[in-house]
């Protein structure tokens, strides 16, 4: 069930994404490929920018995901980019120093979580 994403998680993730430091931002190949399928020629910084804009939007909500293998706090959410709904899933590492972008594709199960 979708609920407001905690402000501390949002701030930590956005802070890391804003650095554009790809030692701290891991983009899974599937997320990169899926995003580029939606936006041909999109570069990694455009994917990161899309997530920053989405996570800074007032009232962003999502669901906690507890089934990922890497340690950390993972949220899934749906946002809109260029009039397209996009399913996103991001992990903030347990240490709060690394972000893993798992998903950036059209929602597979409708436009709600």
Short summary:
By secondary structure, the chain is of the alpha+beta class.
Low-confidence sequence ranges: none
Termini separation: 7 Å
Give the number of helices: 3
Going across the major beta sheet, what is the strand order?
A: 1-3-4-5-6-2
Q: What percent strand?
A: 25-35%
Kindly identify the CATH topology. YaeB-like fold
Report on the biggest sheet. Answer: 6 strands, mixed
Q: What top-tier CATH class fits best?
A: Alpha Beta
- Count of discrete structural domains: 1
The level of helicity is 25-40%
> Which structural class is indicated by helix and strand composition?
alpha+beta
Compute the CA-based radius of gyration.
13 Å
The SSE string, one letter per element, is EHEHHEEEE
Number of strands: 6
Give the overall form.
globular
Mean pLDDT value: 95
Q: What is the correct CATH architecture?
A: 2-Layer Sandwich
What does this molecule look like?
This protein has three helices and six strands; from the N terminus they run E-H-E-H-H-E-E-E-E. It starts with a strand and ends in an 8-residue tail after the last strand. It is of the alpha+beta class and 113 residues long. The protein has a single domain, classed as 2-Layer Sandwich (YaeB-like fold), CATH 3.30.2310. A six-stranded mixed β-sheet has the order 1-3-4-5-6-2. The longest helix has 13 residues. Helix 1 packs antiparallel against helix 3.
């Amino acid at each position: 069930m979708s609920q407001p994403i905690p402000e501390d998680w949002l701030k930590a993730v956005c802070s890391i994404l804003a650095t554009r430091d790809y030692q701290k931002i891991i983009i899974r190949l599937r997320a990169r490929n899926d995003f580029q399928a939606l936006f041909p020629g999109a570069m990694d910084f455009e994917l990161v920018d899309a997530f920053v804009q989405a996570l800074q939007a007032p009232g962003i909500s999502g669901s906690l995901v507890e089934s990922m293998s890497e340690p950390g706090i993972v949220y899934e959410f749906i946002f809109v980019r260029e009039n397209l709904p996009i399913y996103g899933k991001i992990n903030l590492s347990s240490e709060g120093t690394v972000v893993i972008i798992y998903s950036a594709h059209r929602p597979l199960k409708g436009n709600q979580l």
